[in-house]
Write a structure and sequence with these properties.
Blueprint lengths: L2 H16 L3 H13 L41 E8 L2 E7 L2 H12 L2 H8 L6 E3 L20 H15 L14 H4 L3 H8 L2 H5 L7 H10 L14 H24 L6 E3 L1
Parallel strand pairs: 3-4
Antiparallel strand pairs: 1-2
Amino acid sequence: MNLPQRHRQETERLIKELTSTTEGKKKVADWILEEGYYPEPYVLPPCFKISDFELQQEKFEKKGYTDKNWQSENLATISFPKTGLIQRVFGIIHPHRYHDIVWELINDWDKLLSILFNPDNEIYSYSFPIALTINKQGKLRSGRMIYEFLEMAEKDLVAEAYKYKLLTKIDITNFYNSVYTHTIAWAWCGDRYEALADSNFSYTGSRIDKLIQYSNDKRTNGIPVGPVLSDLIVEIILSERDTFITQKIKEKGIDFIATRF
């Protein structure tokens, strides 16, 4: 077993152990709602902190998903210097929409994990956005893990690189802002046309698609940058694509190791 594969296996084990009970799932939901609502801590002053934002028994949106009279919300945006004259725009989702997306994910949690940890996927992600604690199993910690993931991925790849002759690096620029929201439903059910035919919103992915749209002025282009929830949704989309790409590479008989972060 290579190091990226071992990393994925350990992440899967930890999150499955943590969410094996209703209490554990609620713990994860409350962490996403409170710790994950705002962007990274450096973007906003320390006084911006969420408390008492917990998963409710029911969604805030009482209208059915087929109802066309939903109230459209807008993102609150924050511009933050990235490099030079470039600004990075973060988005804050209306709290009721944010809660309802988390509610949908938690209520179909096993399906979510089956997408993120598909055994047929051999492109190993270092971008799992929930801050698991290895030394204290069953616990979540505050903060995000993006920089730790970068370091882990680089170390693991260096350790495995001697087995291969070629190294390829791909960067997707402006990814979050380019996501077509309908791809959430496509990735969730694994079939684009089946998702498009889901006019009754029977798939959780279709419901999340609508919630994201109505969080952002009904737009189908772009996912807010910053919230942990967005990172989790992006993992759904990319994990499905990773599985597809794995299949295509293996069909060509290529020996490879791949990571994503």
